[in-house]
Amino acid sequence: MIERYTLPEMGAIWGEQRKIDHWLAVEIAVCEAWARRGVIPEDAMPAIRQASCDLQRMKEIEKETDHDVIAFLRATGETVGEASRFIHLGLTSSDVIDTALAIQVVEAADLLLRRLDEAIEAVGKQALAHRATLMIGRTHGVHAEPITFGFKLAVWYDELRRARTRLAAARQTMAVGKISGAVGTHANVPPDLEDDVCQQLGLQVDPVSTQIIQRDRHAEFLTALAVLASSLDKFAVEIRHLARTEVRELEEPFDPGNQGSSAMPHKRNPHESERLSGLARLVRGYALTAMENVVLWHERDISNSSAERVIFPDACILVDYMLDLFTDLVSNWVVYPERMHANLESTGGAIFSQRAMLTLVEAGLDRQVAYKLIQKNAMRAWDQGGHLREYLREEPEVSALLSADQIDELFDYGYHLRHVDVAFERLGLLEPALAGDRTREEN
Question: Which among 52, 67, 261, 306 is annotated as catalytic?
Answer without folding.
Answer: 261
